[in-house]
Amino acid sequence: MQKQQLAMAELPVQEMEELYAPEQALAAGTAFPDLDLPFFAVPEEMMETAPVAEDYQGKTEEQKKMMKELTEVSFMADDLNLYLDTHPEDGEAFAACQEYIRKRQELLSSLAQEQYPLCAELALQPEDRKKAPCPWKGGGACVVL
């Protein structure tokens, strides 16, 4: 069998440009508008519909809103972190990522004080684990985000 070269690919390097707002990024599945490309296997209406506060389980409207914001902020921090894996020198992206990480920590701390610790490191005292039920199911355990 003759050795053949199957393929060569050339990929452009992603550039840091304007980011989607967190709500829009979560709906699109990317914080970067340049990467928001149509995907034939997903119904178009799914790609255009961002989650709303009512989609999140919680005891109060405020709790639902906080969970929605936490989801959006966490998504932005994670997506920017992935971008920084290939662009570690991008100061603008690093600053944006740090800001979303700060917002995520702030929301996690606020939820831990007002409602329930969502991750083990925020359950500082044994009684913290027995606070009001988890917003998504009504009881029991810490979650690692």
Short description:
By secondary structure, the protein is mostly helical.
Summarize this structure as a short list of keywords or feature phrases.
4 helices; mainly alpha; 145 residues; disordered C terminus
What do you see in this structure?
- Keywords: Capsid protein, Virion.
- This is Spore coat protein CotJB.
- Residues 65-136 form the Protein CotJB domain.
- The structure is a single chain.
- The protein is mostly helical and 145 residues long.
- The protein is 43% helix and 0% strand.
- The protein is built from four helices and no strands.
- It has helices at 22-28, 44-48, 61-86, 91-114.
- α3 packs antiparallel against α4 (91-114).
- It is elongated, with a radius of gyration of 19 Å.
- The protein starts with 21 loop residues before the first helix and ends in a 31-residue tail after the last helix.
Helix content: 40-55%
| Structural category | mainly alpha
How far apart are the termini?
Answer: 51 Å
Number of helices: 4
Whole-number radius of gyration? Answer: 19 Å
Arithmetic mean pLDDT: 77
Order of helices and strands: HHHH
- For the secondary structure, the number of strands is 0
Q: What is the percentage of strand-forming residues?
A: under 5%
Q: What is the makeup of the main sheet?
A: none
Q: Which regions contain 5 or more consecutive residues with pLDDT less than 50? A: 138-145
Query: How would you describe the shape?
Result: elongated
